[in-house]
Amino acid sequence: MGDTQDWTAAPGAAERARSVLAAAWSCAVTADGAREEYVGAHTVTEDGAVRLAVPDDSALFGAVLCAPRQEPSALLEFADVAPVPVRHRIRARLWLSGWFAPSEGTLLFQPTRVVLRQSAGAVVVDLDEFTAARPDPLAGAEARLLTHLAEAHPDAVERLTRLVRPESLHAATRVAPLAVDRHGLTLRIERTRAHGDVRLPFHTPADDVAQLTERMHALLAQASAAACPRALQRQRADGDG
Description:
Strands 1, 2, 3, 4, 5, 6, 7 and 8 form an eight-stranded antiparallel sheet that branches. About 30% of the residues lie in helices and about 35% in strands. It is an alpha+beta fold.
């Protein structure tokens, strides 16, 4: 009988939503019939509220001040974009519905509904779970880590394909690191007219970059012991011809 796992192989919806929120650099705000884009203007509180710094003369700030009870309904949208250039780079979208109120010279947004859309579809995230969840510990470093892996260690990415089932690599034209979190690494497998994603789980979660380095070394050691996928062997042979 195989070993049992007492951890989640992928982040849950609430943790994923908090990770998207924590790593996003921009957001779109729709309120009072107007839509505005803000870059580098928001921060997130421990319980998942969004603090937004906007100019005093912005339409949004005026809507908050003039709304009844100073609680206008609003919709915030965040996009999770893959740091490595791949086809269809948006990995997830996050929508927060709720209300704004002035707070310490900024606008504080309290979400009342959270919707996360990923490739598998959209889910409504339980609000209590969203409030209690914490972002993935690697969310803030993910972009730097994946970019470094793709640009400085393409040989390691190729070696990791040895852990992918051969059928998943059929007709592959390119493999790139798409995402990493404390539970595993996701590879994007691109084909001429399609693509797919394969997840390589870590043997235990990584709670910081140092632990991630150890988990990656373990994956690479496992890959080194595996045979090179026949699909890639054929591609190399075709390319040499």
